[in-house]
Amino acid sequence: MKYGKAALISAFVVGGGQICSGRLWAGISFAVFFYGSIAIMIKIWTGFNPGFWGLLAAWVLVWLYNVYDAYKGVGYEKPPCEKACPAGIAPWIYVNLVAADNSQPYSFVPFFRTLELICPAPCEDQCTRRGIDAAVAIRYLKSGVKMQVPTPKQKTKKERIAVIGAGPCGLTAAYYLVNKGYGVTVFEREQKPGGVLATLIPEFRLPQSLLDKEIEAAMNVGVELKYGVAVGKDLSMDELLETYDIVFVATGAWKPTKLGIPGEKRALVGFDILRQIKKGEKFKLGKVGVIGGGNTAIDIARSLIRQGNEVKIYYRRRIEDMPAEREDRVEAQEEGIEIVPLTVPIKIEENRIIMQKTECREGRKGGVKVIQGSEFDVDLDHIVMAIGQYPDTDFLKEYLKSDTSGCIKTKNWRTSHPKIFAGGDAVLGSKTVAHAVGHGLNAAEQIDLYMRGIHPLFARILKRTYYPHVFFLPLHPVERMVIPHRKVEDRIHDFEEVELKVSKNELKKEAKRCLSCPLRYRP
């Protein structure tokens, strides 16, 4: 039943809209409370006293809330997994669909399959099942999800929107904006879309063929894409602002961070290494030291060892403090990559690299102290810097405000310029693909509200909840599945995908471990 029709019915018959839309007990509760209190009031009527006027006010509030509830439809308290997802995905819903072997497709999410392979899965860190044994393999279960197929959309609004950057954030925003009826053009400086996914992520983590399908699905709704256009160089911001009603900046974070140590110019740049390897270039570097503890450092090390190099990673904090995903870190160690913690380079010379020991007692967020007098030489042929990256927003300086690291300052994805919105790594600094997708989704919603003149608070109040038909899953005392991987001796010689697939029945068995928190633990 349409939500507007349900609200109209409840406006005349309290609880009627809920009952007609299938929410029997919600409708009965509203009706019993409202009409029951009227019956009691009639029975004990004592005239128009203060008590009556107070009760009348309560009736009006209940009636209004009843109409609002009928319009909003069914709702639920978000479980920990959904709250933790930066991409705005409701994992418990698709896990439930897999467990119940439900043919109902999950709403299309751009880069959903990509997240299946490279998401750090913060949802699993918050999974309620951890209180029993181990988290549900939420990320891996994406492989068993049937998704809706997006179809081309007609332009129904006159406004035109420009998106700078065809990475996961920019393409996600473009997808949702086209679905809302806007004409969207994406400008990409590279010769292909995908951003960091297409340029840097190794094939053994994210096959290009899968990424191409993800991008095609997101663009096929009617997104116009212009390649080889660097905004600020080939096309000015003034031209964009004159031609388009809104400009959304999703340029990512591409500038490598530097340590500022003597001889650093002799070091290789991590991004350049990954970019060239993706193009098919071979690197015979000998003994290599990779400086850093993030995903980029792990990807560089694993890529170079596949090309026959001897690789070590040097990180200034403890191994358990590394920001890289734990699974990728473990896989790297399995492949023979040694991680040397509490170590930083202090000088790079032509024939030697001088390191120094550090101490870090407060974890990842604590300070790092260099231990004086702990210098030592390391025998390396090359050193690769992968200590982070930050946005390159110099071409926007005269148009909007940014902080000292180049990150654009925003509020509800709006910048200090009335026609410019921004999201993704250009705002957050270097984050995950899930953050980029989530920012693209939310930015599209905010742009739409701005164009329609609707306040975000009002839109949030009336936003309906996506709630398909799900089942109350029984509690199964089953151990978490072991995600299969290719043998180390095989995978270190090529760039084929490391993770293997399992049968539909195994996925279903794992999905049944889900507690269906919103159904089991109702507020």
Describe this structure in words.
The two termini are 26 Å apart. This protein has helices at 3-12, 16-20, 24-43, 50-72, 80-84, 91-99, 112-118, 122-125, 168-179, 196-199, 208-219, 237-243, 270-278, 295-305, 326-334, 425-428, 433-452, 456-462, 488-491, 504-511, 517-520, and strands spanning 160-164, 183-187, 224-226, 246-249, 255-256, 268-269, 287-291, 310-314, 338-340, 343-348, 353-359, 369-370, 376-378, 382-385, 389-390, 420-422. It has 523 residues and is of the alpha/beta class. α15 links the parallel β8 and β9. It has 4 domains: 3-72, no CATH class; 91-147 and 472-520, no CATH class; 160-255 and 390-460, FAD/NAD(P)-binding domain (3-Layer(bba) Sandwich); 258-387, FAD/NAD(P)-binding domain. Strands 3-2-1-4-16 form a 5-stranded parallel beta sheet, sandwiched between helices. A 5-stranded parallel beta sheet has the order 6-14-7-8-9.
